[in-house]
Amino acid sequence: MSTARLSALGGAALLAGLLGWYALIVLPALPAFRGGALELFAALALGPICHRLPERSLWLMGAPLGVCARCSAIYFGFGLGVLCAWRAGAGRAARGWLIGVVPTAVDGALALLGVWDSPLGLRLVSGALAGASLARLLWPVYLELWTGARSRGPAWLLD
Q1: pLDDT at 92
Q2: Structural domain of residue 89, as residue ranges?
Q3: Number of domains the chain is built from
Q4: Residue 159: per-residue pLDDT
Q5: Three-state DSSP state, 135
Q6: Mapped to the 3 state alphabet, what secondary structure does 29-81 carry?
Q7: Which secondary-structure segment (H or E) carries 142?
Q8: Other Cβ atoms within 10 Å of 12 Cβ, number
Q9: In which residue ranges of the chain is pLDDT below 50?
């Protein structure tokens, strides 16, 4: 099978996995799933990676999503970044990826230290920027693992 075909298949597999992850985040907030096994599974799966504080979460139909607003933005930004990288055919890491991660890291660290409580809009924007940047960074690595084709040497991280 050609590398291009393997890349397309790999992109589709990653997007399918992301859709499953998004379902785990969103479905427990829907009335039909509240209080059921899916809500419990989501709490067990998502609890170790996010504080899940309702006051810091996006709400859907009267219930918080499975992760906080910042984590939601990171995950959905990551998906958007994957779509952009896949569509652009990017076979190497985007330049400046670190610039997209720094605002979220600084904002999160300041909030954790109690220096300030960032507003929802800032958490959403910085989280989405970080997610998209990480996707552009990790996309070439994923392609190399999926296809077995090496696009560049180890210097890709510094681009």
Answers
A1: 56
A2: 3-158
A3: 1
A4: 46
A5: helix
A6: HCHHHCCCHHHHHHHHHHHHHCCCCHHHCCEECCEECCCCHHHHHHHHHHHHH
A7: helix 120-147
A8: 11
A9: 153-159
